[in-house]
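Submission checklist for the structure archive. All mandatory fields must be present; incomplete records are returned to the submitter.

[x] Identifier: NlpC/P60 family protein
[x] Organism: Streptomyces cinereospinus
[x] Residue count: 393
[x] Sequence attached
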Amino acid sequence: MARGKRGLIAAAVTVVGAVTVLTAPGAAFAAPAPAPTSSATAGPAPATNAELEAVRKRLDTLYREAAAATDAYNAADEQARRQSAEVAALAERIAEGRERLAELRRLAGAAAAAQYRTGGLPPEAVLVLSDDPGEFLDGTGRVRQGERATQHLLTETARTQQDVEQYAQDASAQEKELEVNREAKATAQQRIEARIEAARKLESQLAQEEKARLARLEAEAARRAQTAWLGSGILDEIDGTATEQGEKAGESATEQGEKAVESATEQGEKAVESATEQGEKAVEFATGQIGKPYEWGAEGPKAYDCSGLTSQAWAAAGRAIPRTSQEQWQRLRRVAVQDMRPGDLIIYFGDASHVGMYVGDGAMVHAPRPGRTITVAGAGSMPILGVVRPAAG
């Protein structure tokens, strides 16, 4: 019996849900079963709006999970880089310590040889056997100096040996942690790729007309969220007046992107009116990347993920900030939403898995998700967790 488009989409949503479960941390990966093919001659019926809304929500879930996994990947990658540098530094210290130890042992051998040449007698006995009182007194000072030098040599040798052993232990511990973070990176990468592939597979079930309708549903959902956010009067609290530009910030991503590119200079000038000098530079950098593709794990210059864009924007402004959106939320100074200004970072969703940069007038710039480009969107088009301010002071 023929199976229509609705059946295909329902099956795809079910399969994607199974992939989400199967790719949870600690679970084994399994390839989804292929959707049954239709043997009917009639074309499949178009999906209803309700079915497309279910697809939209499933895609949103998949891409959010991919974003969270991307944060985990970026955090593990950053930590692995630091640990690699520490391991390299420790290896250099071990090499230097071993060279120093070899030199100290050579000096100890030379001292032993010198003692052997005196006949093996203690220094005090050598002095007693001396016939020259002047030589005796002069020799007494040399012996004391020699004793101090010998003691220093022994102490330095022991300390250097301890240092080398400690460096080796530290290097071993760092290498173990490095391996843990490499495994964490690999696991996160698997989760990212599995979810993105599942999302693409789900989208591939749609006809072009259905993809267009899905895009309209996504834009409508963002518009409703932005309208509700603006309707709360929040923009009046932020900059005094709800401008027409702020209201337009909730329009579709494509229209926003086109308008942002066409009026980038004007928009940039308005965005930085109340920002600090650092904030101005960060906004200038971020808006200058509009149109570049999203790529998970990327920090530019050709592509960015959401936190890659914000961290590089603030780096361009002269301030280093954490690499991931979750660390940005945890470590940067928090400010009230009504107090945010251009350059501040808006953290989204309860798990802090997404971040955008406020540019003023109720809008933000961000790298949305795979398959999309950096664009301007309504600051309230997604659930806001909070706002952080990288600017000093």
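[x] Structure attached
Curator remark: The mean pLDDT is 74. The first strand starts at residue 333 and ends at 335.
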